[in-house]
Structures
1.
Amino acid sequence: MPFNPWRSILDGNKMFGMPKQRILFRGITVCQSLSLYSFVFFLLQPPPSSSLYPCRPFILPLLPAHQDGSRAGRDRKKTVSFSSSLSEKKISSAADCIHSMVEGIELKKIRTNSRVYLRYYLLDAGLQALCWEPSKKESDKARISLASIREVRTGRNTETFRTSGVYEQISEDCAFSIIYGEVYESLDLVANSAEVANIWVTGLRYLMQYGKHALDMLSSSQDSLRLGWLEQLFSSAADSYGQEDIEEEIRLQLAVKLIQSVNPGVGCRKVEHRFKELQRVRERMCGNERVTRQEFIEVFHDFCTRPEIYFLLVQFSSNKEFLDTKDLMRFLEAEQGMTQVSEETSLKLIQSHERSEEGRQEGYLSLDGFTSYLTSAECHLFDREHDTVCQDMSQPLSHYYISSSHNTYLIEDQFRGLSDISGYIRALKMGCRCVEVDVWDGPDGDPVVCTGHTLSPPLALRCVLEAIGKFAFVASQYPLIICLENHCSLKQQKVMWQHLMRILGEKLYTDPPYEGESYLPSPYALRQRILLKGKRLGPDPDGEDGEVSEEDEGAEMCQRMKAVSSGVSPKRFQLLKELSALVTLCRSVRFVDFPTSSKSQNPLELCSFHESLAVRLAGESPGEFVNHNKHFLSRVYPNPMRIDSSNMNPQDLWKCGCQIVSMNFQTAGLMMDLNTAWFRQNGNCGYVLRPAIMRQEVSYFSADTRDTVPGVSPQLLHVKVISGQNLPKPRGSGAKGDVVDPYVYVEIHGIPADCTERRTRTVTQNGDNPVFDESFEFQINLPELAMVRFVVLDDDFIGDEFIGQYTIPLECLQPGYRHIPLQSLTGEELPHAKLFVHVALTNRRGGGKPHKRGLSVRKARKGRDYTALRDLGVRAVDEVFKMAAPPLREATDLRENMQNSVAVFRELCGVSAVANLMQCVLALGSRVSGPDGAPLLLFNLLDHYPTLEPQGPLPDVLRRVVSTYEMMVQASRAVMELSDGIYDKILQIQSTAMEFHEKLQSLAAKEGLRGRKVSRALESFSWNITILKGQADLMQHAKAEVQENMKQVHDAALTGNLTKESVGLRRVRSQTR
């Protein structure tokens, strides 16, 4: 056969030695399944003029992408993109950015008429103007002088963007605006990637500061802090290893270790290969494997410079090369949500993280020091305040979710898996507070623990109890519940009782309960005590052993259901009276239905629900299930048909208020990730306080709601997935060699209204430092029950593979720029594998109120939605609720007027929808300078409400800022002055209505209501009470929000040097987050 060069190129194994799935050609990745015709067509395409993009983006029509980004797309063929990644080019200095801008690139220009124009933008050679082509304007007019630029704004944060018909199609991370001229015109641009946008924003900001002398400044400095430190590091290494006789060289292995000391995630082979590659290019083949000073610095730059962190540093740096104490203080306050920050705080942080001696002495944080800080435990996504118990532990036991294990003794599957004491030890060390002990008659008269009707080997009960006694309170001091499933004869029950008394002794809680108690004791009151959950004999004057119904979760559920439906009593067995006496607070009873439980169940009694039954009840009677769990404990155990020990979704039951959802701790996966993460939020003590709406005596909450929750203010979560670091090859994956093509899913787990997921694009062939730069927004309707999960997968044509995950309750998120340590399938932390993200959440110091299309709080009073109360059909009660209409309307108006005014002020400041007022004022500070450099606007901080005062004639845009700020202050003042009176009115009406609660059914009967109408009246009453309580709380929250807003304005004005000089002025700090 004649030689075919195209076919040889496509034969990756023969020509390039690459894995079958991928072929490298011209520095790009090509799919081997690509047809010869398509590949030749690609080769014939001329490259664009920009050297930034050596290969034109080219999407193969024969490989369709899944448009909605859902996981269903994994089963389809993937999209292949032939574009080179800028992140590989390590553009990580202002000089790199400026050189790229001089070469130019195509950007999309957005106009007010929603038209989009593709233009080629570049800097002129003299670095004095921004030019574009083609243009209908004359060449001298198709340019903007850099001297006229007032601000470079990131995101879709100008009026042109907001009113554009293509707003939703524009990525927040690819958009930026140049504000210029005397009348503050805007040039609104969209790059084809977030990396290009970062390059232009960084370069323009640098040029604004240093003008045409920017490159001279850069060449003279060249990041002297880093260079000085690296030269010192190199010299010290040479001296310590006695290499001073060899000028300017150290051993290769020593150079590799120095780089790994800064970036421990990078592999030795990669660093060695880079050194040798560099030496090959320079034709410096060194047989003794030595590295020069210049080679060391260059390779260090390659492996230890993260462009995304450099772009962030430039954003906050006043001199664009390092952060001084004031820069760092502004970053900590505005982005990281820290309180009580001072220059001393910044200096202490610099001393801890800055690498160079010069930086520590001068109080400067270089790029390497900033990277060290951002990757430290201080910038972990998880709020360390939740590492200890931080919730009220004095509520009744039924008000908490309780970490629970199913068949704790198993370490494998249900049917024939191994049993081991280590199952109990592991669960208890993980903070589990409810373990299961299935006891059966054993040999030699000694009871054993095992699963009935299976082949799993037994354990001696004595050994199990000894392990429980030893480890019961190692991880938590709060009560441990032992679910005792008793299948023993009376003789061996006696032995079981003896073991319990001898081994657990005084730890067992056997105190008789107080008669007439409506609730169980609290976890705090039951510290260091062990509660037995099991069957208990009824009141018997003879005090003898008696019969009870058997509790056998291992038996087929259908047999028990048949017994109930046919009227046959469940199987019964003899129970030892001494064993019965040990069961006090958790007495097992059979569930019949919710009306029966409401009438006859005692708070000391607990129902165990088969998974299928619990899920059915959650779907059919979600409101009744929630109300049932306000007073009674409910335990849900997995379907016995889960012989592989798989897990149910705990949130399907948590949303109904079920406290004890038993999980197979030995089975890793999504469900255990959710369970483990959920119980971390309260010091991993095994108890988490349920949402308030599930605990209040009278409240309305439906577990299957797909809308907002009455009385709960939704929050807007903004997540930007910036980059990943050191992502390992999926375990067991060998098809692609060392190639990793990662992408990230961001999942929200909670009530049905909140459950959703979004995914980033795939970054090809980069597991070391893939840059995603994609933002997502989520509306969270019940924040107290929401969790966020980050999942990293490897994009493969055969099937995507799991790389790592991290799950965290929403309540534990820290705002700002954070690193996430990824975990393996089994929950272990992956060495050095992280995600870098930015998080902002409304009503926290890291963010403001929501304003987004589809989630806008900006409504005129005429179009405003006022919360409506429901008619019960009971005249006396309805009259009371009608009194609430005026204060509820007034509360809504006050709150939304304030929030609307803040949203308008935020827009004029040109910041994102989730920015707080500190970020607004700091952003404003960059554009209020007059021709002489003096500020045109200053804050007067003498009053409780800072005033914004003009310092001379103002352009129209700044006059609008002043008037909008005054409207915001006026609305805020109204909230502070009127909120307490409205709050008292609403609570008074609620209190009056609650007087009818106990006699509501009799009043309904007098009105002639029967059956379903009575149930609807009771439900409407709960709805109205929930609305009144919720609106009163929101009024108080609005007042606290105003106080926080004014403090942030005050602090930002001081930090940004936007204050009038005054005597006795001192910094006000916010104590809330």
2.
Amino acid sequence: MFFNGDSSTRKRVDLGGRSSKERDRKKLLEQTRLERDRRLWVKQQYAAAVKIQKWFRGRKAVEAEHSTVRVKFHGTYGKCCQNVDRHCFGPDSDFFRQLLFFFNAKNSDDFTILVEACRLLLQNVQDSGDIVSLFAGGDYSTKHALVEYRVKKLAFTCIWAIYQNRKQLKDQLVIMPKDSSITATLLLEAVVLLIDPKLPWACKVVGYLLQRNVFTLFREIVLTGKENMRSDSSIRNASPLERILALVISHVGQKPCICPNIDLQWSFSSQMLTIPLLWQLFPSLKEVFATQGLSQHHINQMAQCMRNNTYVLPKDLSVEYPSYACLLGNMLETTGAALSRADCSFEMAIDIAAVTTFLLEALPPIKSSSPEIRQSSTLDEDDMALPDEMEIVLNKDLEHEIVHAMHSHFLLQLTSVLFGEISMASGSNHGMDDKEVAAIGAACAFLHVAFNTLPVERMMIVLAFRTELVQVLWSFMKQCHENKKWPSLPDQLSYLPGDAPGWLLPLAVFCPVYKSASLPLVVSFPSCANISILIISWFTRYMLMLVDNEEFYEQEKPLSLKDVGCLIVILKQALWQLLWVNPKAHSNSVKPIKNTSAYSGNPTESIKKRVSLVASELLSQLQDWNNRRQFAPSSDFHADVVDDSFISQAVIDGTKANDIMKQAPFLVPFTSRVKIFNSQLLAVRQRQGHHGVFTRNRYRIRRDHILEDAYNQMSALSEEDLRGSIRVSFINEFGVEEAGIDGGGIFKDFMENITQAAFNVQYGLFKETSDHLLYPNPGSGMLHEQHLQFFHFLGTLLAKLLNPLILVEGSKDFPPIICVDHALRPAATYLDMLPIAKSTVLVLVLFSVCYTGTWLIFSVQAMFEGILVDIPFATFFLSKLKKKYNYLNDLPSLDSELYRHLIFLKRYQGDISDLELYFVIVNNEYGELTEEELLPEGRNQRVTNDNVIPFTHLVSNYRLNYQIRLQSSHFMRGFQQLIKKEWIDMFNEHELQVFSFKLTVTAPPRFLFNVAAICLKLLISGSLDGLDIDDLRIHSNYGGGYHSEHYVIEMFWEVLKGFSLENQKKILKFVTGCSRGPLLGFKHLEPLFCIQRAGGTASEEALDRLPTSATCMNLLKLPPYRRFVPDS
């Protein structure tokens, strides 16, 4: 309202008619409630005070009575029991009644009396031999209630006394003392005597002890004694404490024992098995616990508890000793014995797998205890990574106990019991019953978690070659695939939801195990000098056989080739489902600390990621086998739904298609990958622009010192300069610069000459195999002081040739791609048919290293300059570009004769020691013989039937990896200076697809040529019997006055058609630089084939000229000839 000039405050009137007192109603109610609460609190305080006073008065009265009875006891029996005889132990005596009433463990006098009473008890029983009559007199049946009460109270009192005084008795608790009269021994021996199973009250006494949670007391007693054990202490005989534990646990769950079941939280499993390294303290107790009934009872209890997600383990002793890890180690040490028993049940094996899986899930990853031995397929460490604040490092002894307990016998026994009833039915057409599904689920859950947690180098070999795991899992997977129905297995892993795919767990286990079974070798040796003698025993114990090419293809081990083809389809479908249909979320998995699943966050996504990794590794390995010798159509590896939309997404980081190209590129057909790569190159070019790419560098090179001059002038170039255009001028033998302008042709000549010089075996940097394939010379250092620097430079030089980001100066159009479908194997048979590449042509070629071992030097820079190089590298050296390790089956590319000899040794049926072979290898470099040990003290280690397998692989490792390690590493460093690994990771290592415009190859075997010829007819018009001249004519251009109907042109095509195939190729090579036409026809040749008039008018002088060409432009300069004169 507006101000009216009145400054007084008007009284507010409530128009609702309510009184101001009504507005205070809520306040009044709140005050009333507070007063009521205060009165209740005062009443509770008063009641509590009364209760406390009552308790205090009661305790005070009890203490007074204790003192009265204690004084009376001292007067009757003496402070040191000097007035006690055997009658004092009878039912009519007040000796135990009074003692057990006033006894206080913290009172030294009471403790002394109890010890003396136990000594007298042991002495009287030893003298009379009848403890029942000692306690009951003549008639036990009428006085058994009193006797049982006294005995169980006495037994518990002795244990309680030790518990209360454990720190004072710490040196007497665990180890069996030499003097049996010491305090702790007397008390413990008395308990042993009182719970003897032969006594009529044994079950009731043990039951009473269990109800008083005696294992909690024993746990603290053992931990105190364990802390004070000397490091040199040894357990010789069973201590009284160990015998008590053995007697107590033998009652639990055993018939006809009537001991009550107790809460699992206070049981032996929870309280005692969580003590670190328990069996080292009590080896005899381990034997008792390992009996079938006891171990089955406790394991079943733990399994039920863990299935109910009830956490009953005590507090961790320390970060190094988490309770679940201690329980796992102790349990694993005893379950092997239980599994080996003939009466071990299927249900017990299921429980063992469930408990072990649960505990392994909580365990931090354990690294391999053998650093020299590594698995070639490794587990994804990102899945098991822990943040710094949650990092758990187990005690080394505990870690060793767990790893050692997971030995071959345990795996063999567990899988034998689980699969014992279903392995014989593998391959049957009958449906799977619940028991089979349970066995498969339990085994897969256990092994999946074990693979993620424990070192796998031993487990893989045992599972692959000494169990039926591969066959059983494959039978299961095959039936599910054929029936198009996968049973759900979520119960086996608590963190898997019910809608998780049924194939997830089986694939997570099958893929790494089958890969171990199909790999030529699953163990790599980083250095011969670092290999210890332990490798021999490791191979001898675990590696019973290794699959070679003959076994895989001919004997069809471990699966038939038909089944392998089916496996390829299953893996492809699973991968596509994981990576495209339901891709994983990008999340960091964290391992738990206790009683949670193995992965926090989204565990389902973590296991999906794991399956996608192992499945892609296995499918890649199967593609490798298929590349060596085809047993399945290459299209089986490809997804069927790759379209233009997929290709457009593949070049965008973070998309599903891009993830597939990084993890499983083989799912995408070759032609689609080519398009994706082309799009990536375009994107890179657009991002980087042209600056820095066209930097011109000019160098003067002496022809007779081409490698030295090139190294001295170019080795120090920066990456940017190397990516730029390089122009050279040659200096002849007279020191004069040769005439000419380097528009690309001189650089082509330079690259041809330098590669011929550097890779000439006479120069000493490389050697030849028997198939004339090149590899680094192990003795290159004997000829060249700077040999490693030369290898680095050559790697950079070849990377320059391979560099896809180098664009010719002045080029406006990015080169299109002419591709070869990767199904056309072996590629070496048609590589010479590639198009003549020039300034705007990029040719992508499939290279099958398994058959020819030919290095294809592909160059975008060379492409633009018209460079032709011929450098056939051995396949084992080519694998270094992909940072791959060479195995025994790669040895034929170096020395096929040595490979045959090693295979002969592997299959030798006689006594190999008679051959007098030792773990040494002899090198012969330029007449200088040297002997290298394959193992420490290898000169004294004879090759026998037990260690021949590691010998064969050590020899191949030395030849293929070790002796050229320095040369190869420097070559790779130079190569990677320009070529990033991800540029070629899109293409399979066995295809080794690289980029070039021209190349030559060594002649392949004739049967390979025939295979390629049939395949090529699908892609190229015409026949391999001759070039398609008509296609060339249709896609040709003319200049200088020529046109398609010119008489010279008509005559040229008529003459060319009449030439033999050899002469046609010569003409094509003369004009374009390559004797073969494009695989997809001459329309893909850029620039198109062109004929230009040369010589002006058709004068006699012009007609005497010979045709010339410009290969950089696919240009034929043809004089205007008048007629064709055939050769006579």
